[in-house]
Structures are given as structure tokens and as C-alpha cells.
Amino acid sequence: MVTAKVETAGPLILVVGDVMIDRYIFGDTTRISPEAPVPVVRAGAEEIRAGGAANVAANVAALGVACRLLTICGDDGAAVELNGLMARQGVTLDCVTDKGQRTTEKIRLISGVQQIARIDHDCTVTDAARATLAARFEALLDGVGAVIFSDYAKGVLTALPELLAIAAQRGVATFVDPKPVDPARYRGAFLLKPNMAEFQALFGSCPPDRIVDRARSALDEMGLDHMLITRGAKGILLVSRDGEVVDRPTQALEVFDVTGAGDTIIAALVVGLVQGLSMATAIDQANIAASIAVSRRGTYVVTRGDLDERLYRREHFMTKLVPLAMLCDRIARARETGARVVFTNGCFDVLHAGHVRLLAEAKRQGDILIVGLNSDASVRRLKGAPRPVNALADRAEVISGLAAVDHVVVFEDDTPLALIQALRPDVLVKGGDYTPDSIVGADVVRQSGGRVMTVPLLPGRSTTATLGALGR
Hints:
The protein is an alpha/beta fold.
């Protein structure tokens, strides 16, 4: 049985398959066309993202493993754009240029949060280009820890059975994300990853309580080691030839866009395996990565920072509490997209309406609200014993429950000056019991071009007053 494992020289994942450009055009809709009953969209911003096998490769690289992408492109502008995208993602692109052909492109027209239309430009792959790809494939297998085949039925993987046989002869584990409804194409793969609709199209419909049995039969019939079935809101199901069954519910907290979620799953799964994780643990990692991807608009590349942060939060009861180093990385990436960062701080020992209004108003000043939270020792020095009433873990969990708050970070000092120096927020917010000039870190923020503001207090609401009332 072929197994994926960490190479002593460092893991390398080879991704082979159909690539595409996902182009997004964003605009506003205010009227209906006089020519036909369709909305008129005034085009605004435009974004391009890597799709198909290129999205798989981008996710592999972003999760911290060296990746090479082998594919076929046309000799057009979309191929040039793809080359640039892969270079920025740190993916080594090995592209067979198919002269006179075009690269697959999907154009999505978005108004607000609604997709209005999608226009597809599909490629046509020649036999000569496929033959060149097959020759390059065998030459590229040296030092490869695993191969991911991303099949979108665009023609790059028409000869998939031959490619699987070459990899098997070299002892390289192969992972296939299938599209064409032909079970024989996937014979001998290490792992097949269909979604539920693909599984039923390949192996026949069956009731939910018979899926495991049907998958086991398919493993025997096709010489597969593992079947990983993605089931949307029902999560991920793994059935292995050795009898192992792993059933994981979805980890998604919110679903904004499922585009590319399958690419994320197979990328994160294989990354975990070549880094030495067990199959069950790698599936957990893939499940969490997918939950991150579907919470973002469009094709989203999940990074190692994204994944580490979500894993950290899961270990800390899904609070928004993150270490400073992780937070700095997150903020740096958010700023690359133009996000404005807001910071406020406090003990937040006994949460009341005044706190909630302060945080809501702070969030309105930007895109990301960070709350600096005094440690228990810091609160005790500032407020005296027996404060805090609520320990740090409880205070962090309560603050994390507020929709306005994006991140919580702890500081041990009496003031948050070191945090502010590290984060350099665009807006610094405190309550109205401060003047702007008396706020710790105000000079740091202003020197960086940011602004400082205060929010009026809510009369009669304070932790001290609340605790006093409880003591009466």
C-alpha cells in the first residue's frame, strides 16, 4: 500500500490538473435594462483569483508546503495572469502552452453580495499538449511526497489512468478530486475525494445508512485505499480499506460562498499527511480549513496563519483570543486588502451596556476591532483585590461573544502601550472618562497617521456601580 509521508529532504506536493482564472467584477445595481428584464450593473472593482488546480496549488503553498503545479494553458492573456498569480503565491508553475488555444476563465458579475451572472470561457486541450504534459509528469516525480490530481473535466487529465499508473510504479501516493462520471478512470488511486453528488453519480444512489458499505465496495472494486466524501453541511466522511471510518461534522461557523471549498479540503488534507499527521487528524485540519474558505467571498486561499488561528481558538473554546504574534500576522494580511484597524482596551470585568455601546461604536470606526484585555494580575494591580471578579478566560469568552469584536489580545502590563506599538491601529478608542491626549498610546497612533477618539459614557453604568449594587 502506498503511503504519504514526510520526505527527509522536505515534503513537495505536485498538483496536476485543469486550471482556470476566476474573474470577479463588482458593481452596483440601481435599475432594470430597457432592452430586456435584466439588471444593469455599473461595473466597479475587478479581481482575479486562481481557480481549479491552481487554487489547490495556492492553498498547498499558503499552508506552508512547497508546491509545483503542472498544467496546460492557452497562449493568451489569462495564462499570463495565471503565471503572475502563482508567482505571488509561491507556487512553481510548470505550464505546457497549447498554441492557438485559450485558458479556461470564469467571469462572475457581483452586485452587493449577489452573483448576477457567470460567463464561462472553456479551453480546448490538444493531444500534443497532453503528451507533453505526460512526459513532464514522469520527470517531475523525483522527491515528490504526494500528487494531487484536480480534475475539472477541461481536458488536461483525459489520460489520468496512465498518470496514476506512472505514479504507482514510482511509489508516490495519489489523491484525486474527480469530475467525469467514469469509475474506471480512478482505479488504483491512493485516495478519491468525491462530493456527495459525484459519489452517487459514480457508484449509484443509496440511503445515508448504506454509504459506508457502498464506499467499501468501491474501494475493493477500484483498488483504492481511501474514499473521502464531502457532504456539504453534513461534513466529511472517510472510509478506508483497512476498516477505518472517520465521520466529521462540518466546522463552518458561517457560510458566505462555497466556491473552491473542495480545493481547500484536498489541499489541507494532503499537506497534513505529508507533514506527518494521521489521516484522522489531517481530515480535522482539512475540515477546519474548509470552514475558513466558505466564510469568505469568492475563491479564498487559506493560509497557515488562518489555520493556526482557528486551531488555537478551538483549543480555547472558540474565543477570539489570539497571541500577539499571530494577531500581528493577521493584521498585516488584512491591511494588504485595505482594512482599517481599530483598537480599544480595558478590564471588562463585569460586562454592562456601557461596554457594549463602546465596542459597537468602536467597530463602526473601521473594519477590524481589536480589544486589549488586562490580564488577571494587571487588573489586580489596577483595581485591587478581590478584582477581577471574573477570571481572564471568562472575560475573554464573554467579550468574544460580541459581534462587534474581531480579536481579543491579552496584555500583562499596567497599560497597553506595547500592544499599540506592535499593532499600530488606525483608530484608537476609549471611553469618555478620558481626554484624547491622556489616552495611553495616543502619540504612537497619531505619529502613524491614525486618529484618537472617545465615546461618551452611558450614565449610571459602570462595573463599580454594578458591584456596589450587588453588595447592598
